[in-house]
Design goal:
Phospholysine phosphohistidine inorganic pyrophosphate phosphatase, 8 helices
Length: about 240
């Protein structure tokens, strides 16, 4: 208990990952992880500020929140920091028109974005749409640009669903980086700007916050590099052999 008290000393806010921490996706929307609904409720009854920080890029933020609510979680759309809305803001600020290699479930987030005559590529967890044809089209768009810009909504290697482990966007991002000789701009964890945005919405400083996630690189490592404390849960993609970067 003394160790826990020391770890949590001065903490005013908690950032919670969603996939692998609150629920595992899958058929019918997936299933809440045992005890997670009650844990969120207890956190919200405490003195701590709570925000949800996710790299989910197969669902719009509204659809994700609707799913969580159906699973029993007390969560609203305004409490969720997600990469697609953050990417849209960046695209508008920089006057960029993306070619989208994304899942149909998140495409609605880009409805207000001009996608004609693309001058960048946005890649997300496209699932079954990660075909050779679609990957090659993204490659061709990038290679035709004088200054190619690739945005990746997160860079996770894999995640867990109820049916098992699933490839995430990271391996496909790396393929385009290698083929085009460029480095992607990551929108989502472990990007410092993504953590900064979540903390600003919560109104706490990095040293006052703790990140709870199942990804040793994106959640734990990213949060620690930004000056936060972090805990890795033993659910989701957790593997005993994992060590912090």
């Amino acid at each position: 208990m003394a160790a826990w008290s020391e770890l949590l000393a001065g903490v005013r806010g908690v950032l919670l990952d969603i996939s692998g921490v609150l629920y595992d996706g899958g058929e019918g929307g997936g299933a809440a992880i045992t005890g997670s609904v009650e844990a969120v409720a207890r956190l919200k009854r405490s003195r701590l500020k709570v925000r949800f920080c996710t790299n989910e890029s197969q669902k719009s933020r509204a659809d994700l929140v609707g799913l969580l609510q159906r699973l029993g979680f007390d969560v609203s759309e305004s409490e969720v920091t997600a990469p697609a809305p953050a990417a849209c803001l960046i695209l508008k600020q920089r006057g960029l028109r993306p070619h989208l290699l994304v899942h149909d479930g998140v495409r609605s987030e880009f409805d207000q974005i001009d996608t004609s005559n693309p001058n960048c590529v946005v890649i997300a967890d496209a699932g079954e749409d990660f075909s050779y044809q679609n990957m090659n089209k993204a490659f061709q768009v990038l290679m035709e640009l004088e200054n190619p810009v690739l945005f990746s909504l997160g860079k996770g290697r894999y995640y867990k669903e109820t049916s098992g482990l699933m490839l995430d966007v990271g391996p496909y991002m790396k393929a385009l980086e290698y083929a085009c000789g460029i480095e992607a701009e990551v929108v989502g964890k472990p990007s410092p700007e993504f953590f900064k945005s979540a903390l600003q919405e919560m109104g706490v400083e990095a040293h006052e916050a703790i990140m709870i996630g199942d990804d040793i690189v994106g959640d734990v490592g990213g949060a620690q590099r930004y000056g936060m404390r972090a805990l890795q849960v033993r659910t989701g993609k957790f593997r005993c052999a994992q060590t912090a970067p």
